[in-house]
Amino acid sequence: MPELVAPLLSALILGLLGGGHCLGMCGGLMGALTLAIPPEQRARRLRLLLAYNLGRILSYAAAGLLIGLAGWAVASSPAAMLLRVLAGLLLIAMGLYLAGWWSGLTHIEAVGRHLWRHLQPLASRLMPVSSLPRALLLGAVWGWLPCGLVYSTLLWASSQGSPGESALLMLAFGLGTWPVLLATGMAAERLTALLRRRGVRVAGGLLVILFGIWTLPGPHQHWLMGH
């Protein structure tokens, strides 16, 4: 488990600082969830938001488990090295995206649009959300919304070569996205404003880039571990 600490922290950072992208993808849904509930029913609003986000995060973990099986299948083959190199490059790309230096990562979202066309009608039928099970199910469906940040994190998680570890990384990533979306639903502008600050995003992006470089196979890994 100690060797999982760095990847789990990286997954949390990816989710937390990627929250700005999450707002663009899911912010409208969060608004629809909250506007349907009177402001005086704040406790009910919080429960629905928690249930929705729990369903979304569980979808990420399930996707991590599935793709982790693929990573485990090639773990002892030459393809494992290629997967690790690709994962490291994607981490660097994610760091560039989080820092606001390059947004090419969003092009990966085209991969999941075909699947989403089949899921979108189900999500529409669950609106408006009127109960906790309905919010949980809607979150589980919305977790499959095409998202370049999620897809890149999935590929990186698959390079661990263990379905369980891949699921844990995606769970940590999902937990990282939770504060921004929850704060948005509860109209907590201060938190979202803090996470959108240029300095915070650049610092997080640099950390992720550094971890991406460390993920790439090579002698530089020992030097980075020493520093």
TrEMBL record:
One Pfam family this sequence matches: DsbD_2
Record's keyword annotation contains Transmembrane: yes
Keyword Methyltransferase: no
Record domain Urease accessory protein UreH-like transmembrane: where: 11-214
Residue intervals passing through the bilayer: 12-37, 57-75, 81-99, 135-156, 168-188, 200-217
Top-rank lineage group of the source organism: Bacteria
Keywords annotated in UniProt: Membrane, Transmembrane, Transmembrane helix
Protein name from the UniProt record: Urease accessory protein UreH-like transmembrane domain-containing protein
Provenance organism: Aquipseudomonas alcaligenes (strain ATCC 14909 / DSM 50342 / CCUG 1425 / JCM 20561 / NBRC 14159 / NCIMB 9945 / NCTC 10367 / 1577)
